Amino acid sequence: MDEGFDAHVSTVTLEEIPAYEENEVTLLSDDDALRYDSVTEVTKLLRSSYLSGMLRRLSDYEQKTTRGKNSIPSDDPEYQYVSDCSSLVLRIEVEKSRVHVFLRAQYSVRFPELAIFFSDSVLYAKVVKIIQNNTDLSSAVEQLDELIPSQLLVVVVACASTTSGRDLSQEELNRVLEACEELENLEMAKQTFLEYIQCSMPLICPNLCAFLGTGITSQLFAISGSVAKLSIMDPADIARLGSRRSNDSGIAIKTTGFLSNCDLVANLPPQLRPKALRLVSSVTLTLARIDSNRRAPTNCEGIRERRLACNRMRAWLDPPVLRGAGHNMYERRGRKRRRVN
Q1: Distance (Å, whole) CA 169 – CA 133
Q2: Per the database record, which ranges form the Nop domain (predicted)?
Q3: What are residue 252's DSSP bridge partners?
Q4: Tens digit of pLDDT for each residue in 105-149?
Q5: Which one of 123, 240, 270, 314 has the minimum C-beta count within 10 Å?
Q6: Domain that holds residue 221
Q7: Residues 6+ apart with CB under 8 A from 36
Q8: Are residues 53 and 173 in the same domain?
């Protein structure tokens, strides 16, 4: 864990925050973001006693995980902690989205065109932290070259010299830099919990992790609450988990669920993805029941199902076999007509 992040968490004022609820996400628009004077009014997760308590418990459970634990049953207190960590990661993503909207709205006064080039909020914050009020980016080219491709760097440098924005005052600049720092700290907190989840999730549902990967499995685990609740869902409901989210602009959008980001679905052509999603969701339900009942203590079933799914999807990509009288490999049976001389 980063020392700067530890110092930041230990010095902030502690406040209680509620647990993550997907349906209770407060969206933030650009107009709303301009009404706030500080990023601390937009997000309070880093200054909460909930996050501090989760970090304190994390060090204890990390030591237990490194001792060679074989599994984490549902009655183990660590099982609930892993579920809380997964929910917290989703909550951090929501907070990052809110901070990104605030940062973009505040810095658009100086460089409104910059947000067009960066969809990643963390990368956008790092670039803003380097550019600040500078119009001539010749002195910052080396720093920017480490973050963005050279082709994009040329465009950013050209736009910075011809931008329609104005210079920020010292108060406005401090507000922007504070938002950049907040976004980077949220990303560090997210990575801290993700590392623990990736180590612990295979101990809870090994077959699901072998089939979907730890990232997608942890997202499904966080939304459903437990493997037992996931095992009693309908495959169509599993496919829709995580579909109601908000994008970085703060606008509520109807998106595909978490399973659509699985490599088994995302790597196929668009016309085959709905069919693959139905297959993956049905197999996910089967493996969730296996992991919930502990019928397979190892990940052998998940590996086998993934191999079978890959073989079926590979068959979908094969060219269709033309069938009919003109394409039969056997000759048509029938009496041959005699040749008349």
Answers
A1: 9
A2: 204-318
A3: 246
A4: 999 999 999 988 888 899 999 999 999 888 788 888 889 889 998
A5: 270
A6: 205-244+255-318
A7: 42, 102
A8: yes
